[in-house]
């Protein structure tokens, strides 16, 4: 591999990390509260709002069921409105974030619903407010599940970031397509795949370790 290609590989890796970091951060900041609301706003729950729950749930399901590459194309006008362009690394963050929000929301909702309902009832009996139950009971007990959910989100974003390379999004996917595929340079394609595998492995290992640290069941007694 020539020094020029190696430099492009480093640059593309930086672009991928940038896209994943920003989309993951913004998507999580929006997706986690949405997931908490979906988990606590059903009929008879802490913040009972069944109509809003169904409407938001339908929107989340519709977004999640749309293949990512189609979503990227479908929201090009929105991407241009937000980023000023539909091409490039910064523009790619918009569809990545849009895809992340519902993904995180459903995973967080599932993690919270796995918390023992008896803990919620006990907190209610002790006079805890709904906000206290959410922050001190539900989120505290669901931390391992939420950590794994965010880990899965970042891993998925790494894959999605490679897909946006097909539509001029930059990053490792763009490098693999332009050089590895279009210019028939298998060494570049192999290097891109190896870097993606290393990134995924690093994120997954860190997420698993953090989840084990949060899991009270794994602590010695």
UniProtKB/TrEMBL annotation:
The keyword Cytoplasm does not apply. It is found in: Cell membrane. The chain crosses the membrane at residues 16-39, 51-76, 82-105, 146-168, 188-211. It comes from the Bacteria. One of its GO terms (biological process) is D-methionine transmembrane transport. GO terms for cellular component: plasma membrane. It is a multi-pass membrane protein. It holds the Pfam family BPD_transp_1. Residues 13-207 form the ABC transmembrane type-1 domain. Keywords: Cell membrane, Membrane, Transmembrane, Transmembrane helix, Transport. The keyword Lipid metabolism does not apply. InterPro entries: AA_ABC_Transporter_Permease, MetI-like, MetI-like_sf. Belongs to the binding-protein-dependent transport system permease family. CysTW subfamily. This is D-methionine transport system permease protein. The lineage of its organism: Bacteria, Pseudomonadati, Pseudomonadota, Alphaproteobacteria, Hyphomicrobiales.
């Amino acid at each position: 591999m020539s020094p020029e290609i190696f430099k492009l590989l480093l640059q593309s890796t930086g672009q991928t990390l940038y896209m994943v970091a920003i989309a993951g951060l913004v998507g999580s900041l929006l997706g986690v509260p949405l997931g908490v609301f979906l988990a606590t706003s059903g009929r008879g729950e802490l913040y009972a709002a069944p109509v809003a729950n169904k409407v938001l749930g339908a929107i989340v399901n519709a977004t999640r069921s749309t293949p990512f590459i189609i979503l990227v194309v479908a929201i090009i006008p929105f991407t241009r409105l937000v980023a000023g362009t539909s091409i490039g690394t910064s523009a790619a963050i918009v569809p990545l974030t849009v895809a992340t929000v519902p993904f995180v929301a459903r995973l967080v909702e599932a993690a919270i619903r796995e918390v023992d309902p008896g803990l919620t009832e006990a907190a209610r009996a002790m006079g805890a407010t709904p906000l206290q139950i959410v922050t001190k009971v539900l989120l505290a007990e669901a931390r391992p599940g939420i950590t794994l959910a965010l880990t899965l989100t970042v891993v998925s974003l790494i894959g999605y970031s490679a897909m946006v390379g097909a539509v001029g999004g930059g990053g490792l996917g763009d490098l693999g397509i332009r050089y590895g595929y279009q210019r028939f340079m298998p060494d570049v394609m192999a290097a891109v795949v190896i870097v993606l595998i290393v990134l995924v492995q690093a994120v997954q290992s860190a997420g698993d370790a953090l989840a084990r640290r949060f899991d009270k069941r794994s602590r010695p007694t």
